[in-house]
Specification:
By secondary structure, the chain is mainly α. The chain contains 3 helices and 2 strands; from the N terminus they run ααββα. It has a single domain, classed as Helix Hairpins (Orthogonal Bundle). A hairpin with a 2-residue loop joins β1 and β2. The longest helix has 80 residues. The model has no long low-confidence stretch (mean pLDDT 85).
């Protein structure tokens, strides 16, 4: 549907252009801030993975030694009751309007009753894995945060591109067309008035 070439429509279109332009600038700022946050979290994840990898290797070595000494069946049976001493709560926080997960009140008790004659290697493995649990949970939190940020960056980019390459050009084209038609009308009116004056 074509917009009527009137001064009122021209004013409305120019107002829409101003609003779209302001929205475009704000969305670009938001996108840039989200990208900065994305790379900050990505750096934290890389650092966390590096730290966890070394400690996880040591814990895994202790576990394999414990399995060799005590057998996999006993280790599996004992592992069923270990999660009861770990508690955490997940809440949410907002980053530039994006809701991301946040772990609160993460608690891990390192002591456990064990059983008579358990190996030192099993004790070592349990202590090492329990010490790693908070770091692994924090890493999971950061990875979820990264995914949420990535998704929102994509959405914001699409909105920026839509305004930049579709909405703004279309509105500017409409304003130009209306302006041209008004100028054309003004010239026609001026010519008509000149003809009338000459005839008088």
């Amino acid at each position: 549907m074509q917009t009527k070439p009137t001064r009122m429509e021209l004013l409305k279109t120019r107002k829409r252009i101003d609003m779209a332009d302001r929205g475009h600038k704000l969305l670009k700022q938001k996108r840039d801030a989200l990208i900065m946050e994305f790379f900050k979290v990505l750096k934290e994840i890389k650092e966390a993975r590096g730290k966890i990898a070394g400690e996880l290797g040591k814990a895994r070595a202790s576990l394999y030694n414990a399995i060799a000494i005590e057998g996999r069946v006993d280790i599996d049976r004992l592992s069923l009751g270990l999660a009861e001493d770990s508690t955490f709560h997940i809440s949410q926080e907002k980053i530039m309007g994006v809701t991301v997960p946040k772990i609160d009140k993460l608690e891990v008790k390192y002591q456990w009753p064990g059983y008579f004659d358990q190996s030192v290697e099993l004790d070592n493995a349990l202590v090492k894995y329990r010490a790693l649990f908070p770091s692994i949970m924090t890493l999971a939190e950061k990875q979820l945060k990264l995914k949420k940020l990535a998704d929102h960056i994509q959405k914001t980019k699409r909105r920026v591109n839509s305004l930049e390459f579709h909405t703004l050009p279309r509105l500017k084209k409409t304003a130009k067309r209306i302006s041209f038609r008004l100028e054309e009308r003004a010239r026609e009116e001026f010519s008509r008035l000149k003809v009338i004056k000459v005839e008088e």
